[in-house]
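User: Hi! I'm working on a homework problem where we have to compare a predicted structure to a textbook description. Could you give me the structure for the chain below?
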Amino acid sequence: CFNASGIFVGGSGCKQIIKLRNLSEHSVMDTNISMNYGTSGNSCGIDGVDKTGSECNVTTNESVFDPLGDFASLQTHTIYVEGAGSSIGNTNPDINMSYTENGIPKYGTVNKCEMRDANSADDLCIAGTQTITHGLGMCFDFGNFFSGGGATGGCEKQVNLRNISDKDLTDVSTQLITDSMFNGSMIDDCGIDGTSGNCTDSNMMDFAFMGMGGMFQGRSVTYDPLPDFTPGDEHYTYTNSIMSMSMFNSSTYIGTYIKNDENGIPHLYTGELKDCSAIGGNTTDTERVDAVDTNYNNATYTDANGPDIQTKVSKKGPYTLDGVFLGDDKTTPEPYQAGPNGTSEPLRIVMRLYDVQTGETMKFVDRSSNAIDVVAKIEVGSTSETSNEFYIPAYAKKDARIFMRYIDINQLLDTSGVTCSRSSTDGNMKGIPQCIANSTGSTQNSCADSHGRMSKYAAIFGCDAWERCTQEYNACKPNAYSNNRFPDPPYDSAYGCYECTVGAEFTLSKDHFAIRPDHFDINTIDADFPNLLRSGEEYNMTIYAYDYGVTGGTSGTADYNQSKTNMEVNESIVWAKDGSSTSLNGNVSWTNADFNMTNGVSGNGSGSSEVAGLAFDDVGIVTVIVKDKNWAAVDINKAGGSDTLTDCSPDGAYVCGDNNVTFIPHHFNVTGIHLRNHK
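Assistant: Happy to help. Predicted structure tokens:
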């Protein structure tokens, strides 16, 4: 089979295959096709199955497929015509179709599937190519494609494809098109991930059939279907031949796939696939950064304890963290490098809290509990940099990590081919160079204009980011930052465009840590508390876990949920008259053993918080002590040891609280009294 000026020429074994797709949101029913293409002595079929009679009727001038079948939204069917002997036809025939959509009969011309937005197939990119010789095969290049061959073996060309989006790509197919002055091959093979099949090598001049090469020929290899691509997934296609030649050629790789939008609605994308290094959107080489406490240095980062973040206290501050840049091994700190062409913007790491148990992310706050951006800016040549100060929000977490987003602007500016001289990254859209931010103000509603031209932002970060951040969330529109305003949640901050651009990609700190309440308080509404408690009587107490700086009230630390079995309540101290602690007579007991802590307040499901029954069977001053030594287990039990102190110190791992109470005799019993009447 081969093409010549749009004319399809071939013989037995040479098929013209056309793939049809329904782009409507509705199913289309009762479909039939007619097209001005035919052959003599032919066969034809639908979806790879030969058909005869009215289902598939091909003459020398026309091909009719009736019925073709129903099409669900975005579903495909293929039709084909195969010649016998010699055949000739139009490679781009006019195709007419009748069908019923949503109950309405329709008729019209079938056009080539247009992409939803120009050049929007940037989720799938070419991660690399390689040429492999087999046996005595030889490979050599004349232009962009490859040539080669040999008496045995062959020349194999592999193209690696990668999904750089944050969503699955399904119904994936690709087509490698080569236009050349001279093209031909002998005994070809093609396949996917090393397995032959699921591909069609067409529109080429085959040496085995013609005996010699031809002029102005082209070659097209279609791979359909490819496996689904999960985020970050890679697959490769290949062609292999004993002899293959192409001179003065140019090649194009077309990709088609379906991707769901943020609302789960599927959309079709198709367009030319580009080299991954030339596409934006892959903004983060994840795990190249880390966050640690500010006492970081290279030695402590790689010592037995490893990267360390100590236990934090709810509502306490100010704290800071160090952002650390890691080498290719994603383990060893190393200086952050400028871009290949010398661009030297700092690497900005935007940090949040991450709850490992729920998967939720939360912003840090300032002293007044207002949400703030916490950012570490690592300058070129530096290994780490300290973030701005922050306070911990008012809640407790058993297992937390630092959630980080970042963009390597230096690498993207150099690989995208976009000219953008050094400009401020501290404008309204913090972290985004001003020359890029200025390009997002266009009113166009597609990633590229009618001429395929893309804004600097789209060219650098890709159409997926452009759609998300200028259409769906408006996070990268300049007017969203005017008059001290910010975009809508979840990108409602000065770094909203920056974080939206990164999208779903993120890196978590290597170390886990806990956020605990500041202290316990033991209290009761009994009027005799704390200095006139009666020996032997049970007093129902409320135990509060409070945030830092809180000394009273009926609200405890949010998300501090703990059972009494994980708390220490038997370490109370009985004081001697001289003020020294001693083991005097008497026992302190908690008579209600089944209370739990819920959002920092004791309870047992009865609706009352005064459920911790306290009693003492002697008299004196008692320091009632409650400790939680288990909440920060993620720090206490860290492999290799932790820098967090395992005690009740202000920054230690334990939650502790005490209260001094005085027990007096319950009553006096007077006996042996004799009354006499005296005059």
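For your comparison, note the following. Confidence is low (pLDDT under 50) at residues 3-7, 115-119, 141-152, 203-217. Helices lie at 207-210, 298-301, 409-416, 434-437, 456-461, 463-472, 496-502, 633-636. Good luck with the assignment!
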